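Hi P.,

Sorry for the delay on this. The queue was packed all week, but I finally got your sequence through. Input first:
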Amino acid sequence: MKTFTRRFLKILKRVALGIFLFIGLYALFAFVLSVIPVKCKDQIQGETVDIYILSNGVHTDVVMPIKHAEKNWSQQIKFEHTKSMDSNMNYLAFGWGDKGFYLETPQWSDLKFSVAFKAMFHLGSSAMHCTFYKNMKEGNDCKKIKLSIEAYKKLVDYVEKSFTDGTGGLQHIGHQSYGENDAFYEAHRIYSLFYTCNTWANNALKQAGQKACVWTPSDKGIFYHYR
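Then the structure:
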């Protein structure tokens, strides 16, 4: 019995050490890779499009004009999908994330272990959270970025392909919202420790040839390069 107990405690210590080592390495790589810049490749000549990156302190949204000559998002992300049905809006924010986390955790106090576990370890599905805004106010949590038309097209393509089928046939998740001017849609890919909502937003910027970092799980890794 004593031999079994000693072996069990030895295994338990190794497991605990492995967990702490993993957490430490994850934090180290998250810090180092988030401060290494990916330079802007967008060559702006002529007309530009203003987009924004918007953070709520944890999660980064990519914000685009609802209507532009290159893309009218209201044809797919419909005002009627929101509670307010208010069409007097100018901007649309896109946020990608774990579906269970999005729909079951409107407040941090609502977070369940089962939801967090599935999200962290690639066991759930994903959703797009789309929010309409009348105006955007620049600040520490909201940065404006000017894109060339070509860069804007690449960003639109990236966001479109983040929805489930990537062909424009969006699947609205009915009767789900945080407020009066937002809606949820089925999305592509699966959330994990290594591909978070902020990883998605950072990749969106890279796809559009904008400043970004090598990799980040947090919003701070993105906004660090837009100080």
